[in-house]
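Title: Prediction job returns without error message
Component: structure pipeline
Severity: low
Priority: P3
Assignee: unassigned

Description:
Job completed but the reporter wants confirmation the result is attached to the right record. Sequence as submitted:
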Amino acid sequence: MNRMFWSFLVIIVFSHSSIAQSISSLKWKNRILILMDSKGNHSIRNKQLSTFNELEEEIRDRDLVILCYDGNSLLNRDLKPTTYKITNKIDLDFQGVILIGKDGGIKLKRPFLVKPKIIFETIDSMPMRKEEMRKSGNN
């Protein structure tokens, strides 16, 4: 009986850890914008999130994934839980936006509210993005 319990526990632990994935799994594929809201200031986070509502083409063109951190977990833009976990060296108490480049480095860190134009200009100034624009003829 004891052996069966431990086997069951190991299965649960390993199946849970295989479901969760680090945001670093997006490295070299996506840029990540995390709206950090660990103190529960949902109104300002939601206001920041709403600034992106009409910008789907710009978001997609820049390979941008927008996530929200609520103090416990990462949520998608619909504020539904994701399987992503923060493993980077990010100040979890920060209130604002953190932009992570495709290389995994923090490119912008500012308190709420940040205009999407500033975020897009920051992305567009990155060497990798400039190369993407050059290749697609959008420079």
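Comment from assignee: result matches the submitted record. The chain is about 35% helix and 20% strand.
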